[in-house]
Amino acid sequence: MSLVVTQKDQFTAMRRVLNTNVDGNVNVMYALTAIKGVGRRYSNLVLKKADVDLSKRAGELTQDEAERIVDIIQNPLQYKIPKWFLNRQKHRTTGEYSQLVSNAVDNSLREDLERMKKIRLHRGVRHAQNLRVRGQHTKTTGRGGRTVGVSKKK
């Protein structure tokens, strides 16, 4: 499918949204998934709340539409996005619901892992030792490049 632009000056090939480069040639819904913490379903919901045409390309967005999208991504509860849709539900210390995007996702993951290691939680100990965390078998798999087998007699 070819890309048809009505006005040449409105189209931007790369758009900077929430510290992430978003490809302007891709459909808006899929272009927003380049932002860490925003998936297909969340971007679809945000675009519907912002009244943006889903068939648009990311480069065709006006400045006003881009600002509305960013505002909805950062403040989802003000736009009646349900709590169960968010990626940070009931924060351990504050108890609030929020949608973490870009660098906040990495920061919260690192903080959670540090907390687990500090209180010597089983998951934290496994993370600290670089072992499998989710109950996988480790007898034969995940040996980190060492060869397995029996040496032949000569």
Observed structural traits:
154 residues; mainly alpha; two-stranded antiparallel ribbon; 5 helices; 2 strands
Question: Care to give the gist of this entry?
Answer:
With 154 residues, this protein is mainly α. The chain is built from five helices and two strands. The chain has a two-stranded antiparallel ribbon.
Task: Tell me what you see in this structure.
With 154 residues, this protein is mainly α. 32% of the residues lie in helices and 5% in strands. It is built from five helices and two strands; from the N terminus they run ββααααα. The chain has helices at residues 28-31, 40-49, 63-74, 103-118, 122-128, and strands spanning 14-17, 20-23. The chain has a two-stranded antiparallel sheet. A hairpin with a 2-residue loop joins strand 1 (14-17) and strand 2 (20-23). Helix 4 (103-118) crosses helix 5. The longest helix has 16 residues, at 103-118. It starts with 13 loop residues before the first strand and ends in a 26-residue tail after the last helix.
- Which class best fits the helix and strand makeup? mainly alpha
Fraction of residues in helices? 25-40%
Mean pLDDT: 87
Query: Kindly, what is the distance between the CA atoms of the first and last residues, rounded to a whole number of angstroms?
Result: 64 Å
Instruction: Give the strand order, joined by hyphens, for the main sheet.
Output: 1-2
The Rg value, from CA coordinates, equals: 22 Å
Number of helices: 5
Could you name the ranges where pLDDT drops below 50 across 5 or more consecutive residues?
none
Query: Mind describing the biggest β-sheet?
Result: 2 strands, antiparallel
Helix-strand sequence: EEHHHHH
Strand content: 5-15%
